[in-house]
Amino acid sequence: MTETLESIAQAMVAPGKGILAADESTGTIKKRFDSIGVESTEDNRRDYREMLFRTESAMKENISGVILYDETIRQKAKDGTPLVDLIKAAGSIPGIKVDAGAKDLTGAPGEKITEGLDGLGQRFAEYYDLGARFAKWRAVINIGEDIPSTYCINANAHALARYAKLAQAAGIVPIVEPEVIMDGGHTAERCFDVTEAMLNALYDALYEQRVLLEGTILKPNMIVSGTECPTQAGVEQVAEMTIKCFKRTVPAAVPGIVFLSGGQSDEDATAHLSMMNQIGGFPWKMSFSYGRALQAAPLKAWGGKAENVPAAQAAFAHRARMNGLATTGEWKADLEKSAA
Ligand SMILES: O=P(O)(O)OC[C@H]1O[C@](O)(COP(=O)(O)O)[C@@H](O)[C@@H]1O
């Protein structure tokens, strides 16, 4: 079959599968390694990620694609096999994070703009040659008393659309990620309003910049209460509000929505996704592109020790399987207990 943007996007959201976000930037992976007392060296990062990509059952059955960081897409496994080849051998698709991070937005205290557009066309050509068939760009939207501003929303939507069009021109499917951050005391209703405004601006910009929606994937936050909010929305409420928000804003031509976990607990992220798929009634596939919610358990089980690799791989395979079930609404809480 000839590979098209549409066929790649469809494969990324095949039933039972989702994306492993293993694209932590150097600063973020250091934070993760600090939490288990492991030094963030190039070799340790390689060992850790190689361990994940060699978890055969997870990679073959539940992981449709892996988002890599620039270092990782060029890295070789201990035995000299490129890590990209390990991913492909498992039938999974290599992807690449291309943004250069969220920086302070000039003239807008507390707000961010994602950088990385300069030279992006050439970088895409190189990443394509290295095997990437999809990419990711993350915009960060903070909620505060007077933020986000329209300025911040529009600037980030514009950059996401510029990135998306450049990706498609290189034969690469863009994951567009406008993350409304969970931190703060705001309610789920406020998260709904901000996410709705962001998604409206995003799809306006994608239309204006002639992006083919069938060849894109959306990576959003769910509609959740701020971490400091005294009343936390329950599983059903999160699922219902999230579906409602997306029905208002995301065109039916978009093949799939893959959620970020954003600091939710592993089980919450799985329960919310499963509930949405149980409720159903929407035109897109709903799946996952979790970083922390897939990796927290294997990271802890590994602890930087070779003898812990089997236990860490088992922990990763378990979370991948639980989230795979959530993509079809078949996850149940007692499946977690039986594994424990
Ligand atoms: O700040 P960084 O290093 O770019 O990483 C942000 C992380 O957020 C994500 O977009 C989502 O990760 P979570 O599921 O952990 O929220 C990852 O793809 C990425 O690794």
Automatic annotation (TrEMBL):
Catalytic activity, reaction form: beta-D-fructose 1,6-bisphosphate = D-glyceraldehyde 3-phosphate + dihydroxyacetone phosphate
Source superkingdom: Bacteria
Similarity comment: family membership: Belongs to the class I fructose-bisphosphate aldolase family.
Pfam families membership: Glycolytic
Coiled coil: none
PANTHER family for this protein: FRUCTOSE-BISPHOSPHATE ALDOLASE
Keyword Lyase: yes
Organism: Tepidicaulis marinus
Gene3D superfamilies: Aldolase class I
Name of the protein this chain belongs to: Fructose-bisphosphate aldolase
SUPFAM superfamilies the record matches: Aldolase (SSF51569)
GO molecular function, one term: fructose-bisphosphate aldolase activity
Pathway membership, UniProt: Carbohydrate degradation; glycolysis; D-glyceraldehyde 3-phosphate and glycerone phosphate from D-glucose: step 4/4
Enzyme nomenclature, EC number: 4.1.2.13
